[in-house]
Structures are given as C-alpha cells and as structure tokens.
Design goal:
alpha+beta; globular; Muramoyl-pentapeptide Carboxypeptidase, domain 2; about 30% helix
Length: about 150
C-alpha cells in the first residue's frame, strides 16, 4: 500500500481488474490502438475513486461501456461526442477522469443518494451530474467539497 493506506496505482488497477476490463472504461478507438495499455490514460485519482465506489460504496455491478455503449468512459478525439464539437471540449471524459455508469439494481438517483450518504469513504472529491438517467462521476478538482453536483 502507498502512504496513507491509499493503494498504489498498480495495486488499484489490479484490484479494479476484478470488477472491470479496461475496454469497458475507454472508448473503442483507444482500446483498439493501445489494448491493455489503455489504463495509462485513466487518472490514478479517478481509478482509486472508482474502486471505492464499486467495492465499498455501491457494492454492485457498474456498467460503463458495453456492446451497445462506447463513449461513456474515456473519450478520444475520434469519438462522435468529441469530434462533432464546434468549440473547445475539455470534459473530464477526455481527461481520463470520468465515467457514466448504469448501476445494477439501482436507479441513477438511488446511486447518487448512496454515494452522497457515504461521501466520507471517497478518497477524492467528486462531481456527480444531476438530472440524468446514469451515474456520472468524475474527479475534476473543482472544489474541496467531497461532492459537487452539476447539470450540463
């Protein structure tokens, strides 16, 4: 374990592999080019937060990308949601600090509520998007508050 009982990046990734494949967390373009090395594009803070969310707070399956959804985690410049932008687009998704999840057995509102109730367990401050049918969670450092809610 790293100082402060926080797992190292390598320990975090190894633990996350029990819950996610990297191809679920990055767009197809990224995975097709870098394969298992795609972990390198996801921030350590977000990965450590994702591990705590999945293992300790929500304690149920979380679905990011799958066979019908491809741009809910890391987005590259080739992704439609990015390439069609007509102005600067620097979301947490393109910075490797965000994911949109379907939480197994919970609505998005229920998942947001559970995260808020257990905010003290979060290793880093997070942002959660309100008013959407998925759980968007990111670690952009916009506030010292454990949780910042936002709408797009």
């Amino acid at each position: 374990m790293a100082p402060g009982n926080m797992p190292t990046r390598k320990e975090t990734i190894n633990a996350l592999k029990g819950y996610f494949k990297v191809r679920e967390l990055v767009c197809d373009h990224t995975y097709n080019k870098w394969g298992e090395q795609s972990w390198q594009f996801l921030s350590t803070e977000w990965l450590q937060t994702l591990l705590v969310l999945r293992r300790d707070i929500l304690q149920t399956g979380m679905i990011c990308n799958n066979s019908s959804m491809h741009q809910r985690g890391l987005r590259c410049n080739m992704c439609n949601l990015v390439s069609t932008k007509q102005k600067v687009y620097l979301s947490a998704h393109v910075l490797g600090q965000a994911g949109d999840f379907t939480v197994v057995g919970m609505t998005a509102d229920e998942a947001r509520k559970r995260v808020a109730e257990k905010a003290d367990m979060l290793p880093y401050p997070v942002r959660m998007e309100e008013g959407v049918s998925w759980l968007h969670i990111d670690t952009l450092p916009v506030s010292d508050n454990k949780i910042t809610f936002f709408t797009d």
